[in-house]
Amino acid sequence: MSTAVEHASLGTDPNAEHTEHAGHGNSHYYLVALALAILTGLEVLLSYIDIGAAFMPLLLTLMMIKFIMVVLEFMHLRKDAKVFHFLFWSGFLLAIAVYIGFLATFKFFLQP
Amino acid sequence: MSTAAVAEHGTSHDDHGGGHGHTSTGLSNNKLAMWLFLGSECLLFGGLISTYMLYRGRHVKGPGPDQVFSIPYTSVSSFVLLMSSLTMVLAVAEAQKRNIDKAKLWMTVTAVLGATFVGGQVFEFTEFYRKGLGYTTSLFGSSFYTLTGFHGVHVTVGIIMLMATVGMLKSNKVPGDKAEVIELVGLYWHFVDIVWILIFTLVYLIPA
């Protein structure tokens, strides 16, 4: 049988999971959705105006903020077990690393 | 598992309640498997997005991205998918409060929003085809349709999962913890949404 020490090391508290999620008021989710909608609007706006070299980093930053907001708030990863963080982010970071390597092999970053 | 141990956990092997039965991690194995699956899906979509990034400028024959994409149209469909994530999380929240009827309603709304998105994507593909962009017209066309098509298939599978879950909940055929089942469907749905967040920016908003 698993012990409290084992659960602590995995960042798990099986009895707390559902109650933590249910503890949120729904207004929290509406606020996150509103923020996501505003960020999407900003992204679209950026694609229509010329801000020079800042365009790409700004757009990618907004994209990552939206991505992380959905993962942490809507998928409840912020309050979930550490092992779920590990499983998801390791897959995500591995994908980024592998495909940056892949694109570098094809000299993608040197293309005009 | 002894009777005392069952009493301590407030659950047994057959009961996948809040305590998730007895697992070595203390976590639900179903949820663990879903997160592992989603982690592996990152690699699938990473590959498709990278291939598109590499080939988006390769269109000797046929139109290029700038000639076919309609940012206002795609922005609206992106908004629809984002809002479906809201309705999905509301379904999960209601399920965790044991309001299964409300959860079913939010899941149905999510499925309708998802279907709207897929319908929009089919219309978009039809428009692109009319503009001369077929699947084999150019490397840009092939990589674009493969990426967005795979995403569309994932959304469609999500809609089927949602409607199947609603149907099973109605006929009381969901075994164990209903809230967890709805949460698992929700995790898949949100993943489909975050993939679109990446596709919308990297494919549609960044000029080729």
Features:
heterodimer; A: 112 residues; mainly alpha; 2 domains; 5 helices; 0% strand; flat; B: 208 residues; Four Helix Bundle (Hemerythrin (Met), subunit A); 7 helices; elongated; disordered N terminus
Which secondary structure elements does this structure contain, and how are they paired or packed?
The complex is a heterodimer of chains A (112) and B (208).
Chain A: H1 4-10, H2 17-22, H3 26-48, H4 55-74, H5 82-105
Helix pairs in contact in A: 3-4
Chain B: H1 3-9, H2 29-55, H3 65-68, H4 71-96, H5 100-130, H6 139-170, H7 178-205
Helix pairs in contact in B: 2-6, 2-7, 4-5, 4-7, 5-6, 6-7
Spatial shape of chain A: flat
The CATH topology of chain B is given as Four Helix Bundle (Hemerythrin (Met), subunit A)
- Largest Cβ-defined interface: A-B, 60 and 60 residues
Poorly predicted runs of 5 or more residues of chain A: 1-6, 13-17
Average pLDDT confidence of chain B is: 87
Which structural class best describes the helix and strand composition of chain B? mainly alpha
Gross CATH architecture of chain B:
Up-down Bundle
Membrane topology (chain B): Multi-pass membrane protein
GO molecular function, one term (chain B): cytochrome-c oxidase activity
Keywords (chain B): Cell membrane, Membrane, Transmembrane, Transmembrane helix
Family (chain B): Belongs to the cytochrome c oxidase subunit 3 family.
